[in-house]
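Supplementary Methods, section 5.1.

A reviewer requested that the exact input to the structure prediction be made available. We therefore reproduce it here, unchanged from the version used in the analyses.
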Amino acid sequence: MRRTTATTDYLKECMGTALLELMKEKPIEKISIEEMTARADVGRSTYFRYFKTKDEVLAFKLCCMWSRFAQQSHITELRYDEPAAARLFFEFCLSIRNITDRLYAAGHQNVILDAYLQILVSKNPGKDINAYYRSSAVAYALYGIVNAWILRGYQETPEQIAAILYDIQEKMPD
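The structure derived from this sequence is encoded token-by-token as follows.
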């Protein structure tokens, strides 16, 4: 029987949840695929069918979390150039602080950038190559700002970070 996309995504997200839970108990390098899939109640073959690395599992989980947050917040497109949308994005980042702190402690902060790239950058750029490069630049810029915010211990509010982003964007040359 063929699985639906929703079922597949659910199983993939279960692996992400299991991996995050296990990361509370021990370093990610010491977590086996067998442990993760057993905790997620999925077969090992499911992991190998969809992922090459544990980081891919974590990035998928972050993308799912963003998708739910965006849906609940009525965000149809991540618009970094609109202060209200940017503020919501930074509220999301703050809402998953426990996860990002765990990723940073494990030295796997690159997962955050990977998730941003998946969320923002089209996998098929088509004819609008400028939009493709623009979305890549936005993903890296957002990661840079979030990274600095995390390293500063989230001292600023999401509103303040959104204002900083908006100020930076306003001062960029056209």
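The radius of gyration is 17 Å. These observations are discussed further in the main text.
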